[in-house]
Design brief:
With 927 residues, the protein is of the alpha+beta class. The protein contains 37 helices and 16 strands. It comes from Saitoella complicata (strain BCRC 22490 / CBS 7301 / JCM 7358 / NBRC 10748 / NRRL Y-17804).
Length: 927
């Protein structure tokens, strides 16, 4: 731009303008000149660029620019980088996402995404991310995805493509297609850590909304974290003050928290070693502030993950270490460390069954309420709320009430919510609950939300033991000179319902109750006055002796200019003026109990989490607070809840007095499910040959194509087996992001674990292996499957069926003729027998020697001299499983004339014969 002399002079003139009027005059003159130049329509690229730059500068200064947008769009389609750059800059600054000219830019952007120029690709990606209109997202998201996964894209293009997709997804979640999942996850193994970081940011956002869809990212994150932290696979350029790429470590640790603890021992081992290394390294403080900050960021996220995994036995050893570290952090001199320590300890409190280790630090946590930093005070409040239980509830609530009177105005409403919830949750004495809640309403003033006083009404209504004491206490508060409106509402409701319980107490006569309530009537809002009119009509029903006093109020407000007050007063006058009081007594009968439902206090408190931050996997308030559908229940000793004589019916009086108390639970929508590509429903072409041949063999080739060969070697003893899979690269190119996923359709009958994951890199003409440990737990029918994916330019993947079938757990058994046939007859037929007549699949003539080898390969002992027909093959074996042993017998009878077999299998377990019969038929397909 320094070469544009006219632009430099124009900027200099504006900077030298002494007053706004001179600046405006110079701008108007320039705008008139630019408009005339644009009308000539004979501008070259340089002139158009210069004038658009002037318009941009004017726009940035805050002046309105109503023309020139089309010229900027024209610059976008230029073939010169300098002109295109200015055009994209103008588009992103001057065109909003609903601008009418934006659709003209989309074709140019699409062309720039398609060309083989990294600079043009990046300009287009910047424009998409900054403008991000819905039309752009729908039309261009496939092209952005293509740039992300393309093997020819440079790393910095991939990084920008990943972040652009993230930007679009946050605005329009529907742009991410399920077919993209496997390919995007594979890029988490990219050799360039910058690409991995950008893709991890994208996957982290996607996992929060659809964890099932992105399940495969769990293993990727665990493996990548292990290679970073333990194996130190990174280049020097990614060291930040001797800490390897801390941003990526934090994202991977956070991603792992969105999934329950893995059942896979290999994944558990990877995560455990990574956590231990982080805790050992980061617990040593460094003198360098930046290095300390980076280590602390990783450490706190690792502690959060340890807390999340606390249900797994392997993670219990880390919790004691984490608790000790957090105790030091909350006493740190550094504000940021104290903040993070309090927040992480709150997470720990939300999962622990026993809060005593945290309560040792109660004095320090209470002191944090008086910290100089407001954010630290908020986190201290959260922690006190979460670590409160029946043992320290009264101390914590008293401290919070004391602090409430001097607390910042910005957190008083939240404090009121938490005090109200704790008082209700841990109340063991009726008087304590009433005293605290009424003090709260009195102290908090305008910071009491409607949910707080409505919840008090609900609790008092549903607990008979509270009602008399509540009526007496609230009357004393109403008699005081200063009484907040929320307390007036509670008092009006409780006295209207239960004032008769204290009517014979000195100082609590009906007229005293009326005077106490009516003394606050004039200073209340119209809504509260309407409620108090309902209280007065209740008084008439309970205390006929003060009817004339209440009638005066109704007569007065029957002429009120407020429509609500006027209508209520007129209706109540008509109701109490009837010849008989039968209807009045029916309408104004005592309120029925409220049905059990979610506490609105919890709902309001949990709704305070920011929508722009990462979703939190835990909620404030301890372990039981995560169950939002369960209402808080007052735990008063000896309190009998009133039976709901009228069911859940709502009386007209209830509608008049307590409108707005409905507290329905939110609806939780399940995340969409993604088809499991590792299942048998997605087997790759060509899987059959290797599978069928290995049913009767212990080693061989499971699958082979032009790019990869998958070898198989296995051994089985009793119910246990070990399998080695060999992945061989047949090309001269290195494969990246090698991933294997085993799908076990019957986990209750077959256990499959992998001691270690295969290397993610498969070198040219090289080989890597993966071990599988299998155990037969019972009778299973479906063989497991495996999906192997890798990057060879594009994503390549095969899904295969593993030849781990029930016959693999048979041990041969030698029997003579005297033993075989008695057992054969003893087992009998019916459900314990399976029989099938079939011909050889190949159509060849029956080969008795080959069939004998097949039966032996299927792990039966071939018994010679047992059957009278020497051509018949008789086999015996014992099927081993964790639950016991099952005898299995078979007869394979060939009909040489008709070229047919009859296979008969009997076993003492009814589920075994049919399963083994299917295995025999499959094995015959390999001959």
């Amino acid at each position: 731009m320094s070469s544009m002399r006219g632009l430099v002079v124009f900027i200099s003139d504006l900077r030298n303008a002494r007053v706004r009027e001179l600046e405006e005059k110079r701008i108007n003159k320039e705008l008139a000149n630019i408009r005339s130049k644009f009308k000539e329509a004979k501008l070259d690229g340089y002139q158009r660029k210069k004038y658009v730059c002037k318009l941009l500068y004017i726009y940035i200064l805050g002046w309105d620019v109503s023309f020139g947008h089309l010229e900027a769009v024209t610059l976008v389609s230029s073939s010169k980088y300098s002109e295109k750059q200015i055009g994209y800059l103008a588009v992103t600054l001057m065109l909003h996402e609903n601008h009418e000219l934006l659709h003209l830019v989309i074709n140019s952007i699409k062309k720039d995404l398609d060309v083989n120029s990294e600079l043009f690709n990046c300009l287009a990606l910047h424009a998409i991310a900054n403008v991000g209109s819905k039309e752009m997202a729908e039309v261009l998201s496939p092209d952005v995805h293509r740039l992300l996964i393309s093997p020819t894209s440079k790393p910095f293009v991939k990084k920008k493509a990943a972040l652009t997709l993230l930007r679009l997804y946050r605005k329009y979640p529907g742009i991410i297609q399920p077919s993209w999942v496997e390919r995007i996850i594979a890029i988490m193994d990219d050799p360039d850590l910058g690409v991995t970081l950008s893709v991890s940011s994208l996957v982290l956002a996607l996992v929060q909304d659809s964890p099932e869809l992105w399940q495969a990212s769990l293993v990727k994150a665990a493996g990548r974290l292990y290679r970073l932290v333990v194996k130190r696979e990174y280049s020097e350029e990614y060291l930040y003050y001797n800490v390897p790429i801390p941003w990526l470590q934090v994202k991977l640790l956070r991603l792992l928290q969105y999934y329950p603890p893995s059942d896979d021992p290999t994944v558990q081992k990877l995560i455990g070693k990574s956590l231990q290394r982080i805790l050992d390294t980061a617990s040593e403080p460094q003198k360098n502030v930046q290095q300390n900050n980076a280590q602390n960021a990783i450490l706190f996220e690792a502690i959060n993950l340890s807390i999340h995994l606390s249900s797994a036995p392997s993670s219990q050893e880390y919790l004691a270490q984490c608790t000790a570290l957090l105790g030091k952090f909350i006493s740190s001199r550094e504000t940021n460390v104290r903040y993070l320590g309090l927040e992480t300890m709150t997470h720990l409190a939300s999962t622990l069954e026993d809060l005593r280790p945290l309560q040792k630090h109660q004095a320090t946590i209470i002191q944090s309420l008086r910290d100089r930093d407001i954010s630290v005070r908020r986190r201290g409040l959260d922690l006190l709320y979460s670590m409160c239980d029946s043992s320290n509830a009264q101390v914590v609530v008293a401290e919070l009430l004391r602090y409430l009177q001097s607390a910042d105005y910005s957190i008083r409403e939240e404090m009121v919510l938490k005090i109200a919830i704790l008082t209700e949750k841990f109340a063991t004495d009726a008087t304590w609950y009433i005293d605290i809640t009424l003090q709260l309403l009195s102290f908090a003033g305008d910071y009491v939300s409607d949910e707080v006083w409505e919840r008090v009404v609900q609790i008092v209504t549903n607990n008979e033991e509270l009602q008399e004491y509540a009526a007496m206490t609230v009357l004393q508060h109403l008699k005081s000179p200063a009484c907040h409106e929320s307390l007036v509402r509670v008092g009006g409701y409780i006295l209207g319902e239960y004032g008769h319980l204290i009517a014979n107490t000195p100082g609590s006569a009906p007229i005293d109750q009326f005077n106490a309530v009516h003394s606050k009537f004039a200073v209340c809002s119209p809504g509260t006055r309407a409620m108090l009119l309902s209280t007065y009509v209740k008084f008439i029903n309970l205390f006929p002796e003060i009817k004339h006093v209440c009638m005066k109020v109704f007569n007065t407000y029957s002429k009120s200019i407020d429509a609500e007050l006027q209508q209520r007063a007129c209706e109540y006058l008509a109701l109490v003026s009837m010849p008989t009081d039968d209807l009045m007594q029916t309408v104004l009968e005592e309120m029925p109990p409220f049905p059990e439902r979610q506490s609105a206090l919890l709902k309001r408190l949990h709704g305070k989490t920011g929508e722009t931050e990462d979703k939190r996997i835990w909620v404030l308030g301890g372990k039981d607070a995560s169950n939002e559908k369960e209402a808080l229940k007052l735990n008063l000793s000896g309190v009998q809840k009133r039976t709901e004589a009228n069911g859940n019916a709502t009386s007209p009086g209830q509608e008049l007095v307590m409108s707005g108390l409905d507290m329905n639970s939110p609806v939780n929508l399940a995340a969409p499910l993604f088809p499991n590509l590792a299942s048998a429903a997605h087997l790759s072409p060509g899987w059959e040959e290797g599978y069928y041949s290995l049913l009767s063999r212990n080693e061989g080739v499971l699958y082979e194509d032009e790019q990869i060969q998958i070898g198989w070697r296995s051994e089985f003893h009793g119910p246990l087996g070990r399998v080695a899979l060999y992945f061989g690269n047949k090309t001269t190119a290195t494969y990246q992001s090698l991933t294997s996923t085993v799908e076990n359709p019957d986990k209750s009958a077959l256990s499959i674990t992998s001691p270690h994951l295969p290397s993610t890199t498969l070198p040219a003409e090289g080989q890597t292996q993966q071990m599988l440990n299998v155990e037969c737990l019972g009778v299973f029918r479906e063989a497991p499957t495996i999906r192997i994916s890798y990057l060879a330019g594009a994503l390549q993947a095969v899904t295969l069926k593993l030849p781990v079938t029930l016959n693999k757990f048979i041990e041969p058994a030698q029997l003579g003729a005297d033993d075989f046939f008695p057992r054969w007859k003893q087992i009998g037929g019916g459900e314990r027998e399976a029989q099938k007549i079939f011909s050889p699949v190949s159509g060849e003539r029956i080969d008795l020697a080959r069939n004998r080898r097949l039966v032996e390969g299927l792990r039966w002992a071939v018994l010679d001299g047992v059957d009278q027909n020497p051509k018949n093959i008789v086999g015996a074996g014992v099927l081993h499983s964790k639950t016991g042993k099952i005898g299995v017998l078979m007869r394979l009878e060939p009909n040489m004339d008709q070229n047919l077999f009859r296979c008969t299998i009997r076993a003492t377990n009814e589920a075994v014969p049919k399963t083994l019969k299917d295995v025999v038929l499959d094995a015959m397909k390999a001959y």
